[in-house]
Design a protein that fits this description.
The complex is a heterodimer. By secondary structure, chain A is α/β, with parallel strands linked by helices. In chain A, about 35% of the residues lie in helices and about 20% in strands. Chain A has two domains: about 180 residues, 3-Layer(aba) Sandwich (Rossmann fold), CATH 3.40.50.970; about 130 residues, 3-Layer(aba) Sandwich (Rossmann fold). The radius of gyration of chain B is 20 Å and the shape is globular. Classes of the chains: A alpha/beta, B alpha/beta.
Chain lengths: ~325, ~350
């Protein structure tokens, strides 16, 4: 066990897979000598060089298409879209093609492609847009969004080994904002499994990415009031771990869903609907969603703090499900 | 070509450059001009056309036309390729089985057939039969990937241009000399995907050949209404690759031009953009009366029918006798009829399941 930052865990996972499998290679902007946006590929160029790392021009759609083509030929490309804000430029590639190729070819072809990208408000200010929900809507794509360093490493390794297109969302606040123990050896985390980060009996808080951290802080504060919240880290948005979610709700009877993406049409809507369908009888109160209000993400930092969900907002949502007035 | 253009040409690694002067020109004369002016790539000399190859190209064009007419009868939504056979056949003939292809949506069946796909299973697609390669899950123009064909599972245009760059990248990555050949509509060259993909292909000198199947119409618009530059080949300069125009109704010229570009790509000399000028003799889809264009224009191009031109060339050279020709047509008709009967006899789609458990690999 070693304590690693979130980004060091991800880079270590990529490096291990590149050493293990010579067919793993990277395409992206500034991922070579520069070390990647936010130093997100630091050290890889020095070890693997230009034969494994393709420095790309600003042409995201072609980068993604190139990844699909290489994956069709049996390689395991990882295409880095520097920031999630640029994902709209690769929608045709991912939604119309990558997602449908396995089904459309009656199971003959498959696309073992990883799209790696950075999202969320962070210490670096730029590009906070969280577009992950768009992709969980599309059959054929897998969507991963880890919070804890060990999960980040295990999931990036699992994503590289997966036979399907996987979108891997890295939260920029978490990059060097947290440090955690990462198991030694070939540590893999299966895609499609949520993880209970804190057990509790009174309410389930299901969260993604950075919001898991905020939910954990909220849970500690709630514990002082005698409220024991169970925090479920979704880790994967598609396929969604309905089993873990519903089992938790059956234990607690209450559900709050938290994500940084817009509340309208976010993953919270899908989770709320699914839990209502699967575990309605076990709910003791209406489900509450916490997300960014329906407004374009403002540029100014102070304004952003007003719209992005925070710990007091999560506490207020928990109070709401428990029928209590919130001081926050 | 002016002096300054020649300088620029050298600078942009133009090894050779041919172009037709205008639309509606005497394409036969210009085709011979193209052959005369074509210098060597500096690599392996291209194997010249033989009477055997020429006859086979002709047979494949005849087969393509018959298959296309059958498909038009099966579905008004079929995209007819009549008149464009020289590009369809010339672009994909003579490739190695391990080369990768991605034909344009208009007329791809003959390319799939040339790779080894069964005609009856291809015809099963417009018929909605369970024996089709995609089991009805993708558009009929989606080729079976078993034969190193890039599957086209969507109805959108453009992304395949960079997917073809990706298959070429993979072949380079594996240090093989396999080549990817992709045909695109001239209308699609306006998509951003074209710009991005050719930027990558040119920058990384990928072993890919892009053939623009220029039938002069993007559904209802004539090329003069949607292209800001004079020639499609003008665009190649921006991507650091040669741009070569060829008479797209001359199957021999298309074949030779593509093969030279393929040889160049195999040697690691990078991609080529080829513009094969042809004409869409029918509507955008089988049921389209194509009332948006003058009948005289259609008639002028029908006089340049690539199948007839090839037939006349073969008869004139003595490579084909009228009796051979008759037998060739009869055999092709029989082959299509047999495949059609077999396809029609196959079970319908929808039985037993929709493949919901084949969304993820």
């Amino acid at each position: 066990m070693r304590r690693l930052t979130y980004i060091d865990a991800i880079i270590e996972g990529i490096a291990e897979e590149m050493r293990r499998d010579p067919d793993v290679f990277l395409i992206g902007q500034d991922i070579g000598r520069f070390g990647g946006s936010l130093q997100g590929t630091k050290g890889l160029w020095e070890e693997f060089g230009p034969s494994r790392i393709y420095e790309a021009p600003i042409a995201e759609s072609a980068m993604a298409g190139c990844g699909i083509g290489a994956a069709l030929m049996g390689l395991r490309p990882m295409v880095e879209i520097s920031f999630g804000e640029f994902l709209p430029t690769v929608m045709s590639q991912l939604v119309c093609h990558a997602a449908s190729i396995h089904y459309g070819t009656a199971g003959v072809a498959h696309v073992p492609l990883v799209i790696r990208t950075r999202v969320g408000i962070g210490p670096y200010r730029g590009h906070p847009q969280c577009y992950e929900s768009w992709f969980q809507h599309v059959p054929g794509l897998k969507v991963v969004m880890p919070y804890w360093p060990a999960d980040a490493k295990g999931l990036i390794k699992a994503a590289i080994r997966d036979e399907n297109p996987v979108l891997f969302f890295e939260h920029m606040f978490l990059y060097r904002g947290i440090r955690g123990e990462v198991p030694d050896g070939d540590h893999l985390v299966p895609i499609g499994r949520a993880d209970i980060k804190r057990p509790g009996r009174d309410v389930t808080i299901a969260a993604t990415g950075w919001m898991v951290l905020k939910a954990l802080v909220a849970a500690d504060l709630l514990a002082r009031e005698g409220i024991e919240a169970e925090v479920v880290d979704l880790r994967t948005l598609a396929p969604l771990d309905v089993e873990t979610l519903c089992a938790s709700v059956r234990r607690t009877g209450r559900l709050v869903v938290v994500h940084e993406a817009w509340k309208v049409g976010g993953i919270g809507a899908e989770i709320a609907a699914t839990v209502a369908e699967e575990a309605f009888e076990d709910l003791e109160a209406p489900i509450v969603r916490v997300g960014t209000p329906h407004v374009p993400i403002p540029s100014n930092e102070t304004l952003r703090k007003v719209v992005i969900p925070d710990t007091p907002g999560i506490i207020a949502a928990v109070h709401q499900t428990l029928g209590r007035l919130s001081s926050g | 070509m002016t002096e300054s253009f020649l300088d620029r040409r050298e600078h942009l690694f133009y090894h050779w450059f041919v172009r037709l002067s205008d639309y509606g020109c005497n394409v036969g004369v210009l085709a011979s001009f193209a052959v005369d002016k074509r210098p060597s790539w500096g690599g392996k000399p291209f194997e010249m056309m033989t009477p055997e190859i020429h006859r086979e190209l002709y047979r494949l064009m005849v087969l393509s036309r018959l298959v296309d007419r059958a498909c038009c009868e099966l579905s008004v939504h079929w995209f007819p390729s009549e008149g464009e056979e020289a590009v369809l056949v010339g672009s994909f003939y003579g490739l190695r089985p391990d080369d990768v292809i991605a034909p344009h949506y208009r007329g791809p069946f003959i390319a799939f057939y040339m790779r080894g796909a069964a005609l009856d299973r291809l015809l099963a697609s417009p018929l909605g039969k369970a024996t089709s390669y995609t089991r009805g899950r993708a558009p009929a123009h989606c080729g079976p990937p078993h034969f190193n064909i890039i599957p086209w599972v969507s109805g959108d245009l453009g992304p395949i241009i960079s997917i073809a760059a990706g298959t070429a990248l993979a072949c380079r990555y594996k240090q093989s000399d396999r080549v990817t050949v992709h045909t695109i509509g001239e209308g699609t060259t306006n998509r951003g995907d074209f710009h991005e993909a050719l930027t990558l292909a040119g920058l990384w000198k990928l072993p890919v050949v892009y053939v623009v199947q220029n039938n002069q119409y993007a559904i209802s618009l004539h090329i003069s209404e949607f292209m800001p530059c004079k020639e499609i080949t003008d665009r190649a300069a921006g991507y650091g690759m040669p741009g070569v125009a060829v008479d797209g109704n001359d199957v021999a010229a298309v074949f030779e031009t593509v093969q030279e570009a393929v040889a160049r790509a195999r040697q690691g000399l990078g991609p080529t953009l080829i513009e094969a000028r042809t004409y869409r003799l029918r509507g955008h889809w089988a049921g389209d009366p194509a009332a948006y264009r003058p009948p005289e224009e259609v008639e002028a191009w029908r006089a340049q029918d690539p199948v007839v031109r090839c037939q006349q060339a073969l008869l004139a050279s003595g490579a084909l006798t009228p009796e051979d020709d008759k037998a060739l047509w009869a055999a092709a008709e029989e082959e299509v009829a047999e495949a059609l009967a077999k396809a029609k006899a196959a079970p319908d789609l929808g039985t037993p399941d929709a493949g919901l458990n084949e969304v993820y690999a």
